[in-house]
Amino acid sequence: MTSTTAPLAVGSRPSAAVQAWGFVRRHVLDLYALLALAYLFLPIGIVVAFSFNNPKGRFNYTWDGFTFDNWTHPFAYPGVQGALEVSIEIALASALVATVLGTLIALALVRYRFRGSATTNLLIFVPMTTPEIVMGASLLTLFLNWKVPQGFGTILIAHIMFNISYVVVTVRARLVGFDRHLEEAAMDLGANEIVTFARVTLPLIAPGILAAGLLAFALSIDDFVITYFNAGTVTTFPLFVWGAARVAVPPQINVIGTGIFVVAVVAMLGNVIFQNQRARRAA
Amino acid sequence: MGRFLHARRGATPYLLLAPGSAWLIVFFVVPMYYLAKMALSQGLFPLFSFGWAWGNFGDAVSTYQTQFVRSLEYAGIATVAALAISYPLAYWIAFRGGRWKNLFLLLVIAPFFVPYLIRTLAWETILSDGGPVVAILRDVHILGSDGRLLATSAAVIAGLVYNFLPFMVLPLYVSLEQIDPRLVEAAGDLYASRTRSFLRVTLPLSLPGVFAGVLLTFIPAAGDFINAQLLGTPRQYMIGNVIQSEFLSVRDYPTAAALSFVLMGAILVLVLIFARILGTDRLTAGQAA
Hints:
A: about 280 residues; mainly alpha; globular; B: about 290 residues; two-stranded antiparallel ribbon
């Protein structure tokens, strides 16, 4: 930095160094943001690149040559397919149930004033700020006390539980910015509450509900800690990866990881575009 | 207020709340009760008997003091690093993003759709002894010729920083995006320098986002065991690793349950202290302005 200030004293025309320094000063934040985004995508690049690796050993950590085999045979490694299927089933079911339960809570919190709303807010907020390991452990002691055998059902119960809060927060954000006059207009025109809800309210908050459902699905399919405590002998995809990390990491894991990434990004982009189009049509 | 609001004040909100709240009560609140009971129990798996065994807490803390201190230390450093990385990024998206804001936000979130464990394994590759980062750091003599990153505290903290970054960026972005740019302009019109208007206007207004971000990063980081397991060694193990192995390998549930409560208590105390500091800072900033 000191070398760039020196030429200023010598010549009256700003030198190249000064101009460069000025450029850097003006764009230092842009540069920083670019670097930060590069940092965010660095491990993703590694995951995608190593999905095309042809590792010699059991671990997919060093580059040994390019191949399409992992992509043409994504389920070649025993156990991967079953684990992924379990994860998808649980993610679908938990997202569905949590979205319904969470949307109802969001409606109650935004639409009505009632005794106990502060307590309900607390009930929504606390699970999001509790370490996952504590939630997983407490559910484990519950199932032990109630003598509930752990497995698919207990994983599903746990996933619905932690998803509800995120659904409430997402749907509520959408409901708060909602023009209530539209509902009043419908009711002035003779629609009853149920018809108003089905024909006016629901379509308007649908993007929020959809976003909440996608978020719940993503959280569920990626959950490791809570599942680890409550899975019994059932293996979800993250549990499979955890087990594999100790003995062997097949490149198929990278293929499926990349696949989940692509599907999630496409779904999110789809939701954003869908919302933009609706907004344009409404305008 | 609309007619909708007044229409049925009585039972409707409770009917809407009932199923979801019941789920949270039965599968979040009640388990906490059983965990507390377990923390005060004695015995061997699977026969534990409740008996106000307060000694569990003292034993747990004195046995695993190292891991406790380490967890809070790692989580603290990781949170500060995540804040340093995220604030300028969130600021840039909020004030320079223009009509591409949502796209940039999507870019920030997108990497986290790759499953957590796979992301962490990718960091294992990046930080490995044969990897590029170690090579560069050895070349510039930050690391010795046989120095390594994997299996060190640095690797575990780096993993924590990366894995919880969206929890920092998103709340920061939300609070920065809500700031009326005219307030910052007004500070400039009143001859405040750019640094000064940032420190006196933008920063204080974004503190709620800082608070939320710090909370949402520190809490999961302090309870994490995945990064220490995959990027570290038992010498970097955090309290999460201890709780996990006490529950799932050793099966000493009372100790593990006591550790869980001490972890939550420690987090709560630190969060309250932090809220206090941030609160008074904000107050004095407001008075000075």
